[in-house]
Amino acid sequence: MRCIPKRGIMLYVVTFLVLSPPFSLAFTADEVKNLTKYIFDTNAYDESLRPASNQVSPTDLKVSFNLLSINKLDELEEKLVTTAYLTLSWKDEFLIWDTTEFRINKLTLPQNWVWKPDFVLKNGFTEFKELGGSFYYVVLAFDGTLSWKPYQVFQSQCSIDVTYFPFDTQTCNIQFTMWSHYTYQVTLSSSSSSVEMGDYKVNKVWKITSTSQNIDNSGSNSIVTYTLNLKRKPGFYVENLVTPILFLGVLNILVFIIPADAGEKMSYCITVALGFIVFLTIVSSELPANSDNTPYLSKYLQIQIFMGGIALVISAIQLRLRHKSEEQKVYTPFKLLVKAAFCETVKANVSCKDKSIPVHGQNKEDGDTEEYDDSISWNDVSSAIDFVMFWIYIFVYCISTITIMTILQN
Predict the structure, then answer these.
(1) For a tag on the chain, would you pick the N or C end, based on fewer CB atoms within 10 A?
(2) Helices 343-351 and 332-341, interaxial angle, to 10°?
């Protein structure tokens, strides 16, 4: 008796399985016509009828969301634009055939030939329309299982929170629902707990940190919600917005280095203040007009504009004091300010006084101090104001900048 090698036995088995029904993939056009005639004519298939023999039993619709790209997240309009396709699968009890009779496992049919769920985007931004189109097809298996993959550019509403701009994170929901069929007619299910990201193309502005899926069959209509947690990539805004604003804050401090009698001091103050106003306008134009949350960056700009306004007022006062007559007496509060600002200078001046013998009943230090008080001019007052405000502005700038940047990044 001749022995058959094991490899030959395996090849024979595989060949038999592939070529024998219901695994045969080779069928003629006439066989396809006969099958479609059997399904749609002989069985009088009605695509308007929900595909359940027992209309009390709900149709189970399996759904998954395959995200391809985030086209745009419009902060002004609060609109998320995505490109994606849905994978919908359900069983049609009226589209079942015997593979031993027709030798065909699957058919590809136009979507309008069969019943399909009225599955729509619930939180759409503009128009309301059905999924798919006349050129879409469904794949029908011999056991009545249908697979439908409508591709679409979805525009959905997304509430924007710009509190931490440009280090903000956004949570956007894309909701789909059965529009006309109630939960007792069609229920939703899924084998996945998140958005499918296998074909996703990375966005240059937004990074997807996580996704989730939630199916709710408790209401009158089944709803599935896909959640995208997005984090902004702040590089562009840090280079073109945050850094110039911080630099302008330093220029705000340098106002008090310019001498009060210099004609450029006032124009310098105005220029810096206008610079902050321009950047505040830029930030406002990039973000939605939302009263619920104000960006910390806008608050920081408002602080800097306020400080610039104070610097402008102080510079105007300095200019007025600078042009006072030397014969006009310097008031005591201004003298105290000069002493506080230049205490080391006061001590030096006092120590350099002429060591004369004090008059009976007069203290030597009191006489020197009175003589120094008389020597204080309005120019000294202006310089003291510059000195004190310079250090106050450095302190306020450092505290406000460190606080705002820490809040934004955390």
Answers:
(1) N
(2) 90
Which phi and psi (to 5°) does residue 305 adopt?
A: -65, -40
pTM of the model: 0.78
- CATH topology assigned to domain 236-330+377-409: Methane Monooxygenase Hydroxylase; Chain G, domain 1 (1.20.58)
> Could you tell me the strand order of the sheet in which 206-216 lies?
119-121, 169-178, 223-232, 206-216
Q: How many CA atoms lie within 13 A of 347 on its CB side?
A: 5
The residue that leads in pLDDT, 330 or 368, is 330
Pairing of the two strands 169-178 and 119-121:
antiparallel
Which helix (DSSP H) or strand (DSSP E) does residue 379 occupy?
A: helix 378-409
Dist CA 92 CA 139 (whole Å)? 12
Query: Domain segments of the chain: what residues?
Result: 32-233, 236-330+377-409
- Are the CB atoms for 267 and 323 separated by under 8 Å? no
Cβ 57 vs Cβ 91: under 8 Å? no
Please provide the distance, in angstroms rounded to a whole number, between the alpha carbons at the two ends of the chain: 82
| Percent of the chain with pLDDT strictly greater than 70 | 83
pLDDT in tens, 285-342: 877 776 678 889 989 988 998 999 999 898 888 887 777 766 677 767 767 777 777 7
In degrees, rounded to 5, the angle at the alpha carbon of residue 214 between the alpha carbons of residues 57 and 124 is 95
Confidence check: pLDDT of 87 > 90 = yes
Separation CA 396–CA 408 (nearest Å): 18
Q: Which helix (H) or strand (E) holds 29?
A: helix 29-37
In this prediction, what percent of the chain has a pLDDT beyond 90?
Answer: 46
**Residue found under tokens 């024998």:** 20
DSSP 98-125: -HHHH---EEEEEGGGS----EEETTBS
What residues contact residue 374 under an 8 Å CB cut-off, 6+ apart?
Answer: none
3-state secondary structure of 269: helix
Residue 401, pLDDT > 50, answer yes
Bridge partners (DSSP) listed for residue 66: 85, 196
* 190: phi then psi, degrees, rounded to nearest 5: -160, 150
Q: Which residues pair with 189 in a beta bridge?
A: 62
Distance from C-alpha of 26 to C-alpha of 127, rounded to nearest angstrom: 44
- Enter the DSSP assignment of 79: E
Residue 409: the pLDDT is 84
CATH topology of domain 32-233: Acetylcholine Binding Protein; Chain: A, (2.70.170)
